[in-house]
Amino acid sequence: MVIFALHNNFLYMFNLVLFGPPGSGKGTQSENIVKTYKLQHISTGDLLRDEVTRHTPLGTEAKKYMDQGLLVPDEVVIGMISGKIDDMPDARGFIFDGFPRTRPQAEALDKLLEFKGTKINLVLALEVPEPELIKRLIGRGETSGRSDDTEEVITKRIKEYHQKTQPVASYYDEQGKLERVVGNHTIPETFKTLSKHVTKYLLPVA
Ligand code: AP5
Ligand code: MG
């Protein structure tokens, strides 16, 4: 049993939550972090959109919520995440983008990781003023094809964020894991700030 534990890669993982409102740059910065630190990217938004595109039962259920700018029920999202982590046992660590988004999701993630012998090490919260979020998402909507990038749905997504997701920041702050980062500088400048935090835990891969 001891030998198994020593060889369990989950023990050595670095796991990061990239937190922030819609349009704060979670997806953009995740790409940069993945390239620099070779972490595995888990974006619940991307996973759900993939289910929608493939017309799976999960996707059909999720679409009802996503098109209205509402959060998909916790049990649907939590079930989806567990399998993804199991699929990548050799990962250097994970970057969670857009998850957890409610306190029950955060508690479920902690339990799931604890069961695997690992944990969340750091939560980086991107802070961007609301008018800038709306401007970015409307701009992205012109080319993204995302059905939720309309002004009406963007407003609902931001409201949902304030009501249900913001409390997750306090959850991690109480654990001493939360770092707030100004997210309305340029993309490279914001990445530089994020990197300073990550590098305290994990060296970049050349
Ligand atoms: P999801 O896909 O997670 O969307 P979101 O959180 O609303 O955030 P976005 O992806 O729109 O923004 P982002 O922060 O990734 O910003 P990005 O880098 O793209 O969720 C979609 C839906 O799925 C939810 O509404 C919900 O229904 C469901 N869902 C997903 N996860 C769920 C969960 N855990 N529980 C329940 N439901 C869930 O940047 C935005 C734009 O800004 C881009 O055009 C980018 O180029 C630009 N930009 C980025 N950084 C900068 C910068 N520094 N300066 C200028 N422009 C910038
Ligand atoms: Mg995103």
Layout of strands and helices, then pairs:
Blueprint: H1 2-6, E1 16-19, H2 26-37, E2 40-43, H3 44-53, H4 57-66, H5 74-87, E3 94-97, H6 103-116, E4 122-127, H7 130-144, H8 151-174, E5 178-182, H9 187-198
Parallel strand pairs: 1-3, 1-4, 2-3, 4-5
The structure holds BIS(adenosine)-5'-pentaphosphate (AP5) and magnesium ion.
The site of BIS(adenosine)-5'-pentaphosphate (AP5) has 31 residues, from helix 2, helix 3, helix 4, helix 7 and helix 9.
What features would you describe in this structure?
This protein is α/β, with parallel strands linked by helices and 206 residues long. It has a domain at 14-39 and 92-198: P-loop containing nucleotide triphosphate hydrolases (Rossmann fold, 3-Layer(aba) Sandwich). Helix content is 56%, strand content 11%. The protein is built from 9 helices and 5 strands. It has helices at residues 2-6, 26-37, 44-53, 57-66, 74-87, 103-116, 130-144, 151-174, 187-198; strands spanning 16-19, 40-43, 94-97, 122-127, 178-182. Helix 3 crosses helix 4 (57-66), helix 5 packs parallel to helix 6 (103-116) and helix 7 packs across helix 8. The longest helix is centred in the C-terminal third of the chain and has 24 residues, at 151-174. The radius of gyration is 17 Å and the shape is globular. The relative contact order is 0.20. Magnesium ion is lined by residues 26-27, 45, 98.
